[in-house]
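Reopening: M23 family metallopeptidase still failing for me.
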Amino acid sequence: MNIIVVSGKLAQARTITLTRTQIVTMLALFVLSVAAALSGTAYLALRHAPALAPLFGVPMADAGASNDEVQAQAYMQESIHALAVRMGQMQAQLLRLDSLGERLARLAGIKPHEFVFDQLPGQGGAITHLPRQDLSVSQLTDQLDELTRLLSQRSDQLDVLESVLMENQLSRRLVPSIRPVDMGWLSSGFGWRIDPLTGQRAFHEGVDFVASVGTPILAAAGGIVVTSEYHPEYGNMIEIDHGNNLVTRYAHASKRLVEVGAIVLRGQKIGEVGNTGRSTGPHLHFEVRRNGVAVNPSRFLKAQG
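Support: Ran it again with your exact input. Result attached.
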């Protein structure tokens, strides 16, 4: 996966390539950081539970209580209410991050058992002999503020990562990397050869696959049909624009099953093998053109995977 980073006054661009291992590591660090923050918050809440317990279901201070005690109790109740609201907001954020994490795992090709987003990762460690420090409610609130900020920041970062992964996946689907016929064999390669009809040396701008008449012709990648017509040399011919100045050509078909302007998907049947045009027998002539110039289709077909 490639990420383009633009920095500096001259807006110079650098391309960063992320491997599957790096993506897995990023997700692991994110999950562990969130889990650690939540564990710390839960610990702090438990530490303060004895002091806060009287606020739940216990009557207010009696008439003999001092003004300071009544005000302190009211302040504590307001604090608990505010903390409850914050915890609810964080819970909603975590549900969203769980869903986002699962989508990212699928996009990155990570196996489901490698990341279980609805379970906390394993943690532990030895008990230290350093003195423990109790935190006040205001300090606990500060911790929640920081955790909320981190959750929002991580959410934005994962949104960007999802966009990059989706763009990468879409780009791969638009590269002509699958064979245009499931059956058949390669009868003529790309480059200079002896023309089978003239017997003279000529440049072959594509590759030929021998197959029976009626064999399905498949789109090598997704794109838009820009040509669907009969050509005096190519016979029934179809051309698909895949974007990025890439076009594939399918020639000598017996049938054309798509019209100009149609959106086709990778592997979709677009025609049937035939023997039309300048041809010595049933076969599919397949070309890949970049910026209008024929390039060796084998370079793309070898990228299949």
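The radius of gyration is 32 Å. If you still see a failure, please send the error message rather than a screenshot.
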